Amino acid sequence: MALNDFQEISSDSPHGVVVVNSGSLLDEGVVCLISSESSLDVSTVNFENEDVLVNDIISKNPEVVVMGQNGSLKIEKVYKMLTSFSNMTKLRMIIFHSNDNAVDIFSQQQLNSMRSDNFIQLVQGI
Predict the structure, then answer these.
(1) Contacts of 9 by beta carbon, 8 Å cutoff, 6+ apart
(2) pTM of the model
(3) Residue 61 and residue 28: Cα distance in Å, rounded?
(4) Residue of 6, 30, 19, 46 whose CA lies nearest to 98
């Protein structure tokens, strides 16, 4: 799927974005990158475990969750748990992979590597 294909799916710019922080420099870079956009309300939650993560995300009620791939985290399980709540059914999760520059967009859509301005557009949904 190309970025243009995704842009056609969702043209509404989200306001609430949560970045899951696992303590990496890459996570901090993502926060800085998307925080520079005035249309986004970016906050962070720290990763402790899946249950705490789900509760932290639900409490912030974002439209988008951005996180790096974490080998110990069952991303599909977390997505399913989050979207089981009625106020989270339109949640978009963006998972970035540091090893190959790929990005997973739940539900199970994947884009190949992209430039930083395209990543911001992806978070904004345009």
Answers:
(1) none
(2) 0.72
(3) 21
(4) 30
Opening angle at CA 83, ends 78 and 87, nearest 5: 135
**Strand order across the 103-106 sheet:** 41-46, 16-21, 64-68, 92-96, 103-106, 109-111
* Single-letter code of the amino acid located at 113: S
Report the chain's terminal Cα–Cα distance, integer Å: 15
Q: What is the pLDDT of residues 71-88, one digit of tens each?
A: 777 888 888 889 888 888
Cβ neighbours, 10 Å, residue 30: 24
* CA proximity to 58, closest of 37, 89, 28: 89
What is the CATH architecture assignment of 15-124? 3-Layer(aba) Sandwich (3.40)
Q: Look-up: residue for tokens 């339109």?
A: 90
User: Six-digit token pair at 54?
Assistant: 């789900």
Report d(CA 42, CA 6) in Å as an integer. 21
What's the confidence (pLDDT) of residue 64?
92
